Amino acid sequence: MNKRILIVDDEESIVTLLKYNIEQAGFDTDVRYDGLSALEIAKQENFDLIVLDIMLPGLDGVEVCKQLRQSQIEVPILMLTARDDEYDRILGLELGADDYLTKPFSPREVVARIKAILRRAKQKDETKQEENKVEIGDLVIYKDKYEVYLKDDLLEFTPKEFELLLYLTNHKGKVLSRDQLLNEVWNYDFVGDTRIVDVHVSHLREKIEPNTKKPIYIKTIRGLGYKFEEPKVHA
Q1: Which of 12, 48, 69, 175 has the most crowded CB, counting CB atoms within 10 A?
Q2: Is the dihedral of CA 26, 30, 32, 38 positive or negative?
Q3: Which pLDDT does position 86 carry in this prediction?
Q4: Is 113 found in the same domain as 55?
Q5: How many separate domains does the chain show?
Q6: Taking a C-beta distance cutoff of 8 angstroms, is the pair 80, 105 a contact?
Q7: Residues 154, 191: contact at Cβ < 8 Å?
């Protein structure tokens, strides 16, 4: 599926030029000629990038950018300005625009900037996905989705079990006392009752350990607490 580009400019000749060249580069396009309608469609539909003129009737491009970012819409934005005004460019970038071009510009340059921004956005998204993913042995944990897989099988966890597992994996290799786990995961809801930790560790072992009597992930450190380890791979 082709990437979708929203073109926003009040000059029809510029829109026609941009639309032709961007579509020739293999993208799908939609167009708007004012800031308010651009803001509305950007909130309703998914675009991969917005080419946004600063000087627009009604709602200018800077305000469109500002409102999109306030709405947590992180679509990449390439801003266009007819002014050779550093203030506009800096303000746009501070509000969350990804790049800018000053008119007049060549259509080839616009397409090159679009491709560069999309490459950076892809790399950023891949990095974010990696940060949200934890792989230890046969376990794969997706922090943002609250999902845990064991050998590609999705496991069921209560929210507190997931939080405990995540805390253990985030401190892999460190001995964690029951009091520490109670304080950090339960936030003092069960002050002094460390049995709740043992119960939840037992539940975790039942779900992730091949043999609960000989755990390979969550080790008991006698007299101290628990330690999450990377399973040893036997040659």
Answers
A1: 48
A2: negative
A3: 66
A4: yes
A5: 2
A6: yes
A7: no
Confidence bin at 235 (pLDDT 50/70/90): very low
Residues 39 and 121 in one domain: yes
Q: What are phi and psi of 132, to 5 degrees?
A: -85, -5
Task: Spell out the residues 6+ positions from residue 216 whose beta carbon is closer than 8 angstroms to its own.
Answer: 137, 209, 210, 229, 231, 232
DSSP helix/strand/coil, 77: strand
Q: What SS3 class is residue 4?
A: strand
Task: Using the predicted structure, report yes or no on whether residue 51 has a pLDDT greater than 90.
Answer: yes
Which of residues 86, 115, 131 is at a domain's end?
A: 131
**Domain CATH number, residue 84:** 3.40.50.2300
Is the same domain home to 44 and 123?
Answer: yes
H-helix or E-strand spanning residue 112: helix 107-131
Report strand pairing: 133-136 vs 139-142: antiparallel
**Average model confidence (pLDDT) for the chain?**
90
- Contact between 185 and 160 under an 8 Å Cβ cutoff? The reply is yes
**pLDDT per position as a tens digit, 162-199:** 999 999 999 999 999 998 998 889 876 555 677 889 99
Q: What is the pTM of this model?
A: 0.60
- Would 235 be classed as within a structural domain? no
Range of the domain at 209: 133-228
